[in-house]
Amino acid sequence: MGYRLTKNLKDSEFEASHVEVNEAAAKRIETDFGVRCVDIDTALSTAEAVILAVPDVAIGKVAASINDKLRPGTMVIVLDAAAPFAGHLPERDDLTYFVTHPCHPSVFNHEATAEAQSDYFGGLSARQGIVCALMQGPEDAWELGEKIARTIYAPVHSSYRVTVEQMAMLEPALSETVCGTLLTILREAMDECVARGVPKEAAREFVLGHANIMLAVLFEEIPGQFSDACNKAIENGRPILINSDWKSVFEPAAVLESIRRIT
User: Fold this and answer.
1) pLDDT digits (tens, 9 = 90+) for 75-108
2) Cis ω on the peptide bond leading into residue 155 (within 30° of 0)?
3) Can you tell which superkingdom this protein's organism belongs to (predicted)?
């Protein structure tokens, strides 16, 4: 993420200092973008906003290590709700905490160029939405936080304001616990068909094509409905594949436990 953010910050309106503890990564950033990384003290000496582009498990440790070096009023930007939701940020009433995360380009993100169409992650060429939360700090800090978020995740078509609690519901609960699990099962189901003799290319084309039209109908991208046969298959398959209490993954205690394992 730090590499991607460097690319988008390089030619932006913001003056950015980049810190990278990995020498190979720092050299790559300099080679690719002409950006020379600096030490942490140099970067923090004038920083009005600090982006923690580090793994979830490192957020608490990194935030604690720089806490005494952050001037009052500094905005700390975290790129995922997990660590903030779990309480891993220092207790400093004089800091602004802003949390933002990309939605990533939608499967219905119809782009004009092949380059953009193949940007599945976002932040390069494909448009995407973002979610943002002002966790703490003055309301007038929102404009700066969102402007930075729109810059590092560009190109952005929509920005949605949520709470940190809602963002934690979106990830990990919705995007990873539910969506990631179901899509993994879908891939395993395709592999099972292949193991039972179906040519892999046919199985892949078949499942992705059906997923495409089903997603378009379910998420109201197009008007339509499933066939009677499909509805009957879903009715029969649901109790086999899905536990009746699956929505419990969205309960606050379940979300917190999932985040605890992540962080």
Assistant:
1) 999 999 999 999 999 999 999 999 999 999 999 9
2) yes
3) Bacteria
